[in-house]
Amino acid sequence: MSRSPARQPQPAVPVTGPGWSGLKACVPIMIGYFPVAVTFGIAGSATGLSPLQVVLISVIVYAGASQFLLLASIKAGTPWLWVVALCSLLNARHLLYGPLLSRFLPPRLATRLRIAFLLTDEVFATALHRLEHVTPEHRGRWMVMLGLGAWLTWITGTAVGVFAGDSLEHHFPVVAQVMRFALPALFMALVCQTVTRELRASILAALAVGAVCAALGYTTLGIVAAAIAGCVTFRLQNA
To answer: In the predicted model, what is the mean pLDDT of residues 119-130?
Structure first.
């Protein structure tokens, strides 16, 4: 049985100017973030928060799922300690992102703190796929520009939702239905870019377990079960 040819390493990506190639890599994320941020702006206005408060949530919190959870908690009158705890648990996955990227990043603490604030699921997926191909001396700047483009797009989309969301929904009602699928579709596209032959079995196992759980009505459990199935399959395959 013949072995497939070894994967050739890609050449390092030179970064010119203030990290413009990082901003270029962010374009797919920006396209996906904008409609979701508009949806958040509309939802935030509907809770009775002021426009400034809604925009500041995107500026300071900057965590899509946590922001929507925050709005739901405000409407439900949830105590703020519970809100902080729930948002912290929801974002605990970021503790796994840092170690995976740290080997590519410069050692300066200030640079790492900037990157940590700008890190999201989609930024992580893009960086994990491309950062090793950026020249080492430019990785910090490339990563900051990647995250900065996503952050500014999220803020801009929120502002559009706050100040023009009602008009958009009135004139283009189908847009409200489409926007909710933008972020999951974007993340799936980014994940597909990182798929290699050795990961196919793990991904198929995770998809199968997740599909079965979803069909049985256990969607939340399906996420955890699918992740475990994928990890176990990978370990068994490489044992």
So the answer is: 88
- What tokens appear for 92 in the block? 């605990």
User: For tokens 């069909």, what's the residue?
Assistant: 215
228's tokens: 């475990």
Question: From CA 194, how far away is CA 132, in angstroms rounded?
Answer: 13
pTM recorded for the entire structure: 0.72
The two structure tokens encoding residue 150: 């996503």
Angle made by CA atoms 93, 95, 100, in degrees to the nearest 5: 100
Cβ atoms within 10 Å, residue 104: 18
Type of residue found at 83: V
Closest CA to 26 of 110, 116, 151, 117: 151
pLDDT of residue 221: 81
CA distance 126 to 187: 9
Q: For position 223, what pLDDT does the model report? A: 78
Q: How far apart are CA 168 and CA 180, in angstroms?
A: 15
Q: Where does residue 124 rank: exposed (0-12), middle (13-18), buried (19+ CB within 10 A)? A: buried
Asked whether the predicted pLDDT for residue 144 surpasses 60, the reply is: yes
